[in-house]
Design goal:
With 150 residues, this protein is mainly α. Helix content is 78%, strand content 0%. It is built from seven helices and no strands. It is globular.
Amino acid sequence: MATIDTPAIILLVLVALGIIGNNSTVTIAMLVLLLIRVLGWHQAFPWLQKYGLTIGIIILTIGVMTPLASGKISLDTILSSFLSWKSLAAIGIGLFVAYLGGRGTILMTNQPTVVAGLLIGTLIGVAFFKGVPVGPLIAAGLLSLLIGKS
């Protein structure tokens, strides 16, 4: 009797959600995880779970900082950001979001039972509302404000 590979089925459903929601980020990510699973490279999962978030944040930071590195954002532009109320608001919101991400990381580490709900909500947001999958950290940070840090 063949056993059902529940994680693979869940990944396939998420691939379908990515396709239906026209979101290539979700589709590609789920296909990569499915491929790792189907090829039997299960030893990659603990490594990805441990380092994937950090690597993703590094790549995201590189993408965000590229205009600075390429010279498209000058020192004058950076300095003038302290003169505009919109730029000051952006700095404040950036600080708040970074704070939420830190709280979210702690919450997801200390209360792994909330991770599934955060992931489901994020994936739905990514697949159907053109979001980006940085949501779990921010969502966890917001949740931590409601339920406490631990």
